User: Fold these one by one.
Assistant:
Number 1:
Amino acid sequence: MDLRLRKIDGVFIGADEESAAIVAEYHNDKVYKAKISEINTRTPKQNSSIQVYCRLNAEALNDSGQYMECPLVGMSSAQILWTMESFKHGVWYPVQIAITLEPKSSKLTTTQVQEIYLNISQNMSLNHGINIPWPSNKNG
């Protein structure tokens, strides 16, 4: 069984809801053997790439005339331009939570960031005809 643990005040606790529930099931009067390894959380470069990726998708959606629909009282709806923030909150975060159950991008592993990107990229390509490569120094 794999658990995500965090050390706080010298005590290991579950770092996520599932791990915390499993830790709570075990009794303190028993001894358990565990192999501990560090989890590589997303890097500062990945964080910057997330921001750039969201901005580039927002720009591509706007450029292709695929605006956000915003229902308004007394009107059918308004077409709103996408921004980096609206793409991040409307697309990236919902996919992130669906895949990882983690609401904070700072808690993601390097592998999870790529998994989220691949999922969004595939859906943007299939549903909107938009294919933005993962930002690098060359295309960000």
Number 2:
Amino acid sequence: MELLNLSPYNTHGAFVEEIHTISQTEIEPIHMICPISMSCTNIMCRPFHLALATCDRDIPKVKLIKHSSILARSYVLTGECKQCHTLYSADQKSYQETESKRKEIFLNSARYLKIGTHLWVDCIFSNAVINGVYSFYASPNAYTQYWNNSFGLLDSFHTTKLNRKHIWQIFIQESICTIAETQYFTMPHRFLQEFSHSSRIRWNGTGICRNPQE
């Protein structure tokens, strides 16, 4: 106690003041959402290391939902291979397909998913959404209301209210990751939006998402 200056008494044994409660909010760590790999995965570049793609002042600050906790002080790092100029983030990589076009490849092994402009979730939370929908036959609206009432609005310091679009985005991305057979699968943002809309309007009463081409 004396070594850490946590004693309520001074060196003469006189009482000074009571020990205050340690705030978990003030000592919580800062989470950095980083790419899975630290080096370029392209065969021609391996093992060329990744460099930070943005300036320190431009690193985006986001909210991260980890398990059931809301972490307001989180930052997203994007790596870049200086040799082939491939960009790596926590959930995807982007490479130069032509001189004027880049192609995004979403990682099947991603540990974090981006579901909003400044909102990320971990794989445990996204897996909980899948289990909730299938186990309890919960709709995106029902799961959204459940999570907001149980976790999102309880902590006054880290209030985060999800909406139906967030839950539906998680459901689509996690479902594709689950059924993907390869390590990487190509899925541009435009395709994700079209697939999300098509599968939503073709959801039938059996709980099976039919092929949008049917």
Number 3:
Amino acid sequence: MSNPTVIPRPLECVFLDAGNTLLSPWPSFERRLVQVASEHGVSFEEAEVEAAIMAADREAVWPTDWTDPATQREFWFGFYISVLDRLGHSGDRQELAGALYETFTDPASYRLFEDSRPALEALAARGLKLGIISNFEPWLEDVLRLEGVRELFSVLAISGVLGVAKPQPAIFQTALDKAGVEPGAATSGASSPTTRTLFRRGSGSPSWHRSCCPGSARPTPSCATSSPTGSWPPGSSASSSRRSSSATSCGRCSTTSTSAWGSGTPTRCSCAPTPPWC
């Protein structure tokens, strides 16, 4: 079962994830992959693409160096080729993998969720500082600028810039230092339950917990719940980006998922696969 989120009082700062919390590829990762493949004369179905992505995710060894473009490029090329293999693609895999890499590293390929901007503006209107803590490449800031919300954030703690990634304590401490707040005055929401961070009042330091599947560093996606048009950008979670107002229950971990901004919980169960950014 998920641990309840403890909201600090008084609350001064809210840290959020980026991928699958505020934004994702548009119109979705699967659809965009299908579109790019179609432009290269290859036809895939969204359902088979999602299954191939999830299978590749289970076997992927995610890079630890977020600051080296060559390392990131090598990883994503290999990942896309793995997906194409699972889709039975017999054509030029290098060419198509290259096209996918160019698409999903283009900041213009990403959009905010419909409810992200109103929620951010509502939080800012209450006088709260806003920050992002995300395992993401440095160009995340470009996405925020293109979407017109960069000015809403006082703090950006991006792994590709800092060279440290969640769940390492350093990225959380850096965010707190930049915001100028104590752990007990901040809270954080993330798309991945394994790194969902709670800055508990009076804790003296950032702490994180696993919402479920505590024995696994990378929970399997066998019970992930999502809307029909899930989105999985490079590094995001394989089965849920679009969020609905309906509640669904996971048969494996009994987690109930509801609308992200209606309840503060993303539309995913606690066993959704761990993304390399969160």
